[in-house]
Structures are given as structure tokens and as C-alpha cells.
Amino acid sequence: MAVFFVLAVCALVSVALVSYVHYASRQRRKGQAGYGHEQEVLKLPPGSMGWPYLGETLQLYSQDPNVFFASKQKRYGEIFKTHILGCPCVMLASPEAARFVLVKQANLFKPTYPRSKERMIGPSALFFHQGDYHLRIRKLVQGALGPDAMRALLPDVEAAVQSTLASWDGRVTSTFHAMKKLSFDVGIVTIFGGHLDERRKAELRMNYSIVEKGYNSFPNSLPGTLYYKAIQARRRLHGVLCEIMQERRARCEPGTDLLGCLMQAQGDDGAPLLTDEQVADNIIGVLFAAQDTTASVLTWIVKYLHDQPKLLEAVRAEHAAIRETNDGGRLPLTWAQTRSMVLTHRVILESLRMASIISFTFREAVADVEYKGFLIPKGWKVMPLFRNIHHNPDYFPDPQKFDPSRFKVAPRPNTFMPFGNGVHACPGNELAKLEMLVLIHHLVTGYRWEVVGSSDEVEYSPFPVPKHGLPVKLWREKNTMNFKSCETGNVEDIIV
Ligand code: HEM
Ligand SMILES: *[C@@H]1O[C@H](CO)[C@@H](O)[C@H](O)[C@H]1NC(C)=O
């Protein structure tokens, strides 16, 4: 999640002032004869802080971020300091260090996001919080995204996948664009159940897309700017959500979907646990966390399968067998079938590793913390570098090779964290994987596709995706008949 915020983290704060304050406090700490009960001088991790004020921001942006992190790691090892966008930070490139921050000492490191982003998503959304409030909401969200919920959701996921593919049939479309619509639709059924009327859905979709456009823009509240428009659209989203909640209450049908779970939650005294405002913030937060992440990984999967015809044939064989059992695709996929897709599951894990779309996350030290004899000063950011760990040959030999068979053996503990780790790990991971399994099933059994143009460059959206979102021409395979042909949704495709 936090990677959404990386480009803007601290961009707002007065860079010069903050740098100076941190610089001064660092000097002070250096001068201290020890801290707490330990009477030894802890040193800061190795690394360079770059130029005054600017830190190493320019270096980070003038080169591929992966190269920046990797060369630092090579030079300084698993933990090193740097200074980007006005924030001193410690980067952590080892499984142990990531575990220390995200799991073992998670209470010493709080989530950290710029105010402007918090305001856009909603300050009560769970990922901004730590402690009791976070835990309570997290339990509710996990409940609504748990195994039973996933089983019940399968038919809706399958319908959404089929509709996405049907509206793509015979056209060239940006894969990322199509996948965004898919993950949005799945997010909507997860949150509202299958019964949200089309008008409401369209209102949510349109307003949400305005929020998104403003999200990564400079937070300038003057009328006319993207940020301003996004804040306005966010207000309308909130209004729509409150209307939906009021209607549910009037009908005395809160529902068993995520919205229902949040609305019905009660505190120990039996009173509602959350205000409508808090529910709305969390709903918008989940939509946000669910969409671009899942869509980026789905896009990479389409590319990886396309680029490896032999692998694609093997995956196709796995799914052809299932389709056969399902009377040539006339019967819906069963939950048990989704659990039986062994090769496909490995392809998904390897795609998550290769793409590592959440390259790192952010936390902030709430106190001076010692790690392996180094000081992580209070107020500094820490960044567990997931991608570096996923691409370290010590844990994943020949890391640039796409090789699903490496997942025949479980990865070493804490070396594979596509969904994070610890108290803030992704509660949507099963849903994301279900979408991937179902998409792959219908894609490889019903369709053929080819990539249009070169797809080897990467762009950041803000997650890495292939250039132009991977334009793909897709067509229905002649000799398989798709009996469950379904409504063609109105995709506003990018026709290339
Ligand atoms: C492939 C798709 C996805 C990936 C790679 C992914 C990855 C992640 C990661 C790495 C985190 C932890 C961030 C951190 O520790 O700072 C996270 C958190 C979160 N994700 Fe996902 N996610 C995906 C899909 C989803 C979906 C589909 C949903 C919801 C339906 C979702 C909801 C959330 C929420 C609510 C959090 C915050 C949890 C907390 O703070 O306790 N994610 N995700
Ligand atoms: C946003 O939501 C409002 C309802 O509050 C609705 O009237 C409007 O059509 C929606 N769409 C856009 C693009 O603003």
C-alpha cells in the first residue's frame, strides 16, 4: 500500500526545514553518550545522506529505482541510511530486518503517509492506524475477506471475469485498463454484495476515477486543480456511501458483505463500533487498496504467459482438464477446482515475485530503536525493500528467470512477502489470488491473444506495469464454444 505514497512522501513538507531539524537531531544523537539503559554509543547504519536538503532524491529519480536500491545494498549491505524527499530513512534489504520492523517489533514502527493522501482516502481507513482501532477494523475486514466469503464470492468473480473477456474479444485493449475494470467490479461485489444497482455503481465508478486522478497529483487545493477536483469527488463518494447505508438501515437489511460487516459491528457496550464516516473511509480505503494492485499483477500474468509459449501450453492443459469436467465450460467453476490448479498457483506466486509490484513499504520509528547494534532514530522512516529480497539470488537463484517450479518448495521464511508481513499484511490476498486463478482459467481455455508492439519497457502507474499497460489483441478461440456467453459490459477501452 504505502508505495502509493512514495512519490509524494514528504514532498509537501518544507524540505529544507525538515532536513535541517533531522540533521540537527542526528548530530545531537551522535553526541550522546548512550541512550536508555544501555551505556554504549549506537551508530547510525552505513550509507550516504547525499546533498543537504535534497538528500539523494535526485539519484533515486535519475535512475531506475531498482538500480538505486540494488547498488546501495551491494555497497552497504542489508541495512543502510539515505535521505529522500526531505526524510531521513533507513532501508532494510534482508528478511530478518523486514521481519524485525513488520512483525517482531511492529509496535515500535507506525504506518506513515502524507496528510494529503490520508485526507483523500479518509483518515479513519485502517492502514493509517496502529493499535486497538486498527486491530478491530482489521478483524472485520479479514472476516469479510476470509475463506467462507471467498467461496460465496466465486460465482460473482467468475461472472466479472467472463464479462471482462467478452468485452475485450476481437479488440486491441490496454490489458491494465481492462484489468482495472475487472478488479474494480470485483471490489464492488465484495463490498456491496451482488445487489448494488447500476446507477449507484456508475456514480461510484466515475467519482472514484476522479479521486484517483488527483491522488498522485500535487496537493494544491486551488479550484480547478486535479487535487481539488479529487477532494470534491471524494466528498460525493462519501455522500453516495452514506445514502447506501441509510437505505440499508431503512430496510433493516445490513447485509453480510463487507459494508454490512462494518455497519453491524458493535463495541463491548452493544453500541455501533463505527460511525458512518469511519465506515465510508474504510470502504474507500479497501476499494483503493484492491484495484491497481490486483490489476497490475493480472497484467504481468498476461505478459508472462504470453512470453512463454511452453509454459502457456502446460497451464492450458491444466485448465482444459477442468473445463472438460465442467461439461466443456457449461458448468461454473467450483471452489474445489480453484484449489486444484497446482501449476497455475505456482505461476501466480512466481508472477508476484517477479513483478513485486509493491517494491517496498514505509514505517516510522516511534522511538529510538536498536537493530543489530545500529540506531534507528525516532522519527526516521524505515523501508523494508520487498523487491530486493524477492530478487536476491541467495533466496531465489537466477532471480531474473521466470521459473514457477521454484515454488515447488516453499520459500524460506520471510523471504517472500508480496502481500507484506505482520499486523498490516494484506487481508485481500486470497481475493486477489482467486481473481488471478479464475482469470487465467477463462483466458487460457477460451481465448488466444497477442501483444501489440514491444512490451519490454516498464512504466509506473504508480505500480510497475508493462509499457502502455500492455496493449493486447484478444480473440475467442474458434474450436472452443463458450456457452456461458454473457453480457458485454461497457468498457471504456483504450483502443490503440
Ligand atoms: C495482487 C494484489 C495485491 C497486492 C500485491 C497487495 C499487497 C499489499 C501489501 C504489501 C500490503 C501491506 C502494506 C504495508 O505493510 O505497508 C497490503 C495491505 C492491504 N491490502 Fe492489499 N494487496 C493486493 C490486493 C488487495 C485486495 C484485493 C484487497 C481488498 C479486497 C486489499 C486490501 C488491503 C488492505 C485493506 C490493506 C491494509 C491492511 C492493514 O493495514 O492492516 N489488497 N496489500
Ligand atoms: C458522482 O456522484 C454524484 C452523486 O453524489 C452523482 O450525481 C454524479 O453523477 C457522480 N459522477 C460524477 C462524474 O461526478
From TrEMBL:
<comment type="similarity">
    <text>Belongs to the cytochrome P450 family.</text>
</comment>
<keyword id="KW-0812">Transmembrane</keyword>
<dbReference type="InterPro" id="IPR017972">
    <property type="entry name" value="Cyt_P450_CS"/>
</dbReference>
<dbReference type="GO" id="GO:0016125">
    <property type="term" value="P:sterol metabolic process"/>
</dbReference>
<dbReference type="GO" id="GO:0010295">
    <property type="term" value="F:(+)-abscisic acid 8'-hydroxylase activity"/>
</dbReference>
<keyword id="KW-0732">Signal</keyword>
<keyword id="KW-1133">Transmembrane helix</keyword>
<feature type="binding site" description="axial binding residue">
    <location>
        <position position="426"/>
    </location>
    <ligand>
        <name>heme</name>
    </ligand>
</feature>
<comment type="function">
    <text>Involved in the oxidative degradation of abscisic acid.</text>
</comment>
<keyword id="KW-0560">Oxidoreductase</keyword>
<keyword id="KW-0479">Metal-binding</keyword>
<protein>
    <recommendedName>
        <fullName>(+)-abscisic acid 8'-hydroxylase</fullName>
        <ecNumber>1.14.14.137</ecNumber>
    </recommendedName>
</protein>
<dbReference type="GO" id="GO:0005506">
    <property type="term" value="F:iron ion binding"/>
</dbReference>
<comment type="pathway">
    <text>Plant hormone degradation; abscisic acid degradation.</text>
</comment>
<keyword id="KW-0408">Iron</keyword>
<dbReference type="GO" id="GO:0020037">
    <property type="term" value="F:heme binding"/>
</dbReference>
<dbReference type="InterPro" id="IPR036396">
    <property type="entry name" value="Cyt_P450_sf"/>
</dbReference>
<feature type="signal peptide">
    <location>
        <begin position="1"/>
        <end position="16"/>
    </location>
</feature>
<dbReference type="InterPro" id="IPR001128">
    <property type="entry name" value="Cyt_P450"/>
</dbReference>
<keyword id="KW-0503">Monooxygenase</keyword>
<keyword id="KW-0349">Heme</keyword>
<keyword id="KW-0472">Membrane</keyword>
<dbReference type="InterPro" id="IPR002401">
    <property type="entry name" value="Cyt_P450_E_grp-I"/>
</dbReference>
<dbReference type="GO" id="GO:0016020">
    <property type="term" value="C:membrane"/>
</dbReference>
<dbReference type="Pfam" id="PF00067">
    <property type="entry name" value="p450"/>
</dbReference>
